[in-house]
Amino acid sequence: MNRERALRTLGLEKGARADDINRAYRALIRQAHPDAGGSTAVAARITEAYHWLQRADTQSPPPPRAPQPDQPSPAPTDDSMTLLLPPGDVFIRLVEAGHQLGEVSYIDRDAGIVQVTFTADNGVVCQLAATVVSSGRATSRGDARVEFTLDPLASGQAPPIESVVNRLARMMVSSG
Prior knowledge:
Strand order of the largest sheet: 1-2-6-5-4-3
Shape: globular
Strand content: 15-25%
Oligomer: single chain
Number of helices: 5
Order of helices and strands: HHHEEHEEEEH
Structural class: alpha+beta
Distance between the termini: 9 Å
């Protein structure tokens, strides 16, 4: 997500100030929240845009660095991946890729959890849960691990988790 997309999600113009962002968020979330009859996916997008703008307004811009490809590397198991990015950046990419894969049905930024409901190629509705954790290895650019679980929500067979993880990884790399 970038500033322009976040502002557009909240229905705001380029020069919006913090109080404009807060007002727009409160008005939109009242309508879109699932408890008010709204969509979980829409509420998640609104919340993600709002949090992205809050972070962007409170953080100083990162120092410039040479672009380097951030390729997820296969982990020892088929249900995880590691990216050489800070966990917060991985979380943002994960949410954006989740919107491409299906409907983001749950977000918990503090716990690093994103759940995505999607229809697999075989027609089975599935839920992918992803948790972003720091790998514990300190690098100059960061190092985060994403662990996944995949469950069918209806009768039928979920696709192999490694194929879903690989597809999501490609989306995450292209969103950066």
